[in-house]
Specification:
Blueprint: H1 3-6, E1 14-18, H2 23-34, E2 38-43, H3 46-55, E3 60-63, H4 69-83, E4 88-91, H5 107-132, E5 140-144, H6 157-177, E6 183-189, H7 195-208, H8 212-221, H9 231-241, E7 253-256
Parallel strand pairs: 1-2, 1-4, 2-3, 4-5, 5-6, 6-7
Helix pairs in contact: 2-9, 4-5, 5-6, 7-8
């Protein structure tokens, strides 16, 4: 097989993308669909799911809150019905969580961030692994962490804590699942262009008393390449990690961030 062929995911892969109706998740789902994969997406946002279904024929969808185990179970019922099995799980669910000094963070906000960002990763992995063990398509699990999963992040303690935990989960799963031929890796996006990052920058600017423009410039100065990454940059890494070229890549936390130097 040529190197060029190795870089393409195998056509017909059965892929589940969580929080896949918008943002990074939608970019990943569309990218897999374009390679000939069979894709199922779940999301909490019904309107976003409807838009995705209207835009991309052939992607099946479920509406679910990924932090609620019974709703996760329903997603896997739909995956089995629509895909008949699973080769790739892209565990993408995540929220920004609160911005503020540790003494000002509400406990409920902390608990919600952990529930969505970390507990959901466990719930989906727990249900996916038995299906991945039945796969003959070089099965893999991809977890979406963040550059905040390798650097400290002042005023974003709940978010950073969950993203570091995701890296620990992936490295542990790589060891646990390796004997079964299942690979597990984390993608750590950096500052991603889009509405979500704009909201994060605005919230951090308000927390620190800076203008939004000054905070945006500060974010760019922290990046070696002095630019944000795109949704497609992240999706391309997910495709690579699911391709034959990455058959010996597991247990890795791979940054797609232009080298963010500090947060």
């Amino acid at each position: 097989m040529s190197i060029a062929a190795l870089l393409q995911p195998r056509p017909g892969l059965r892929v589940l993308v969580t929080a896949g109706a918008s943002g990074i998740g939608a970019a990943v789902a569309r990218a897999f669909h374009e390679t000939g994969a069979r894709v199922h997406v779940c999301d909490i946002d019904r309107a976003a799911l409807n838009r995705l279904s209207a835009d991309v024929s052939g992607i099946s969808v479920s509406m679910a809150d990924a932090s609620v185990p019974r709703e996760v179970d329903m997603v896997f019922d739909d995956v089995q019905a629509n895909l008949g099995g699973l080769d790739v799980l892209v565990n993408n669910v995540g929220i920004a969580g609160p911005t503020g000094a540790i003494q000002d963070i509400e406990r409920g906000d902390w608990e919600r961030t952990v529930a969505v960002n970390l507990n959901s990763q466990f719930y989906f992995a727990q249900r996916a692994v038995p299906m991945l063990r039945q796969s003959t398509g070089s099965p893999c699990l991809i977890a979406m962490s963040s550059v905040a999963g390798r650097l400290g992040y002042a005023f974003r303690t709940p978010y950073a804590s969950t993203k570091w935990a995701i890296v620990g989960m992936v490295k542990s799963l790589a060891i646990e699942l390796g004997p079964h031929g299942i690979r597990a890796n984390a993608i750590l996006p950096g500052v991603v262009e889009g509405d979500r990052m704009s909201r994060v920058i605005s919230a951090r600017a308000a927390a620190t008393g800076m203008s939004v423009e000054a905070m945006r410039d500060e974010y760019l100065r922290k990046i070696s390449l002095r630019r944000m990454v795109t949704l497609d940059d992240v999706a391309a890494m997910a495709l690579f990690l699911s391709s034959p070229a990455a058959r010996n890549v597991t247990g890795q936390a791979i940054s797609v961030d232009g080298n963010v130097e500090y947060l």
